[in-house]
Amino acid sequence: MKSINPKIVPIKMKRDKLLLLNQILLPMKTEWIECTDEVQTAHSIKVMHVRGAPAIGVAAAYGFYLGARKLVNSGKKPTVAAMQKIKERLDQSRPTAVNLFWATGVMLEKATKLIESGIEPAQFIIKLYNDAVAIHEDDAKRCMDMSVIGADFIEKLIKNKKYRIMTHCNAGALATGGIGTAVGLIRVLHDRGKVEMVYSNETRPYLQGARLTSYELEKENIPGTLVVDSMAAVLMKKKMIDFIIVGADRISKNGDVANKIGTYGLSVLAKEHKIPFFVIAPESTFDANIKSGDDIPIEERSEKEVFECQGIRHAAKVKALNYSFDVTPNTNITAIFFEGRVMKK
Ligand code: MRU
């Protein structure tokens, strides 16, 4: 199949500055955040200027390069210990998406080998830049490959119709280095004339569905309908959904999936209504070191995100609990699409 290009590219390098499309402000405002070292990059990941598991990994790879570059430019010799510190700084930004640790791990391994080879600092920096670009480009290719694998699988499973699809959070171009995972698959199906409607859940509290997925659907001219999270059940009951597709932040060895809060609930509803429930993610999201979803660290974010919307408080003075992710057990998942395989129970 011909390759599809992303219209939105949220991560760019320009004259040794990392430019991140500020996803806090989209779709109302287009603003680019500049990062020149690993500290600024880690901050941008933490506050979610850049978000989505694969995109976090790509940004972290560039952040690692920028940290190493700053060190060399200050006249210091790059050492393995200094590279480890850069990795640690980036790794502290968000705990759940394993792509972050995967990308900084790859960069540290490359940097270590280069340092041990006795390379000149100037050459070291050039090579690390190329390694970060390779992670970015590789993610774009993975997005395309897994989207085709998933679309082919779905067309074989659910025949002779245009699909009414539900998705949650944002797993599109904004969340990856390419066309996206869940939205990537939707784009492939749309390209084949197979999409009737995409229902995106608004995804409280950060509103990735309302602000980001809807924005991507609009840009790609894909029919989209925005619904509040609590409407998912009734849409399934009314037989308005043919399948659900979501991305992932970490997949354990047994196929349990950590993804945006609300995903687990959707999977339970899908099971009850006998609706196929699919997950799509690159292998960099697969964590073979973790046996089951019970061991996946779940990020807890600020109460403020629950109390407020766009900086305006709407809640009374109580406590708030803000788990950013939940875990869907493999028994609720029809299939997981990776770039080179399909994982089924
Ligand atoms: O908190 P976020 O916006 O980083 O959470 C993102 C998600 O949960 C996505 O669904 C997941 O990372 C997959 S992105 C291709």
Second rung of CATH, namely the architecture of the largest domain: 3-Layer(aba) Sandwich
Q: What amount of the residues lies in strands?
A: 15-25%
Number of strands: 16
Helix content bin = 40-55%
CATH superfamily grouping of the largest domain: Translation initiation factor eif-2b, domain 2
Rg is 20 Å
Oligomeric state of shown chains: single chain
Ligand names = 5-S-methyl-1-O-phosphono-5-thio-D-ribulose
Q: End-to-end distance, in Å?
A: 28 Å
Major β-sheet annotation:
7 strands, mixed
Structural account:
The structure is a single chain. The protein is globular, with a radius of gyration of 20 Å. The chain starts with 10 loop residues before the first strand and ends with a strand. 41% of the residues lie in helices and 17% in strands. The chain is of the alpha/beta class and 345 residues long. It has helices at residues 38-46, 53-73, 80-91, 98-116, 121-157, 182-191, 208-219, 232-237, 263-272, 304-307; strands spanning 11-14, 17-21, 32-35, 163-167, 195-201, 224-227, 243-246, 250-252, 257-260, 277-280, 286-287, 308-309, 312-313, 325-328, 335-337, 342-343. The mean pLDDT is 97. A seven-stranded mixed β-sheet has the order 6-5-4-7-10-15-16, sandwiched between helices. A hairpin with a 4-residue loop joins strand 8 (250-252) and strand 9. It contains ten helices and 16 strands. It folds into two domains: 11-140, Four Helix Bundle (Hemerythrin (Met), subunit A) (Up-down Bundle); 146-344, Translation initiation factor eif-2b, domain 2 (Rossmann fold). Helix 1 (38-46) runs antiparallel to helix 2 and helix 2 runs parallel beside helix 4. Bound molecules: 5-S-methyl-1-O-phosphono-5-thio-D-ribulose. 5-S-methyl-1-O-phosphono-5-thio-D-ribulose binds at residues 51-54, 97, 169, 171, 175-176, 181, 208, 246-249, 259-260, 324.
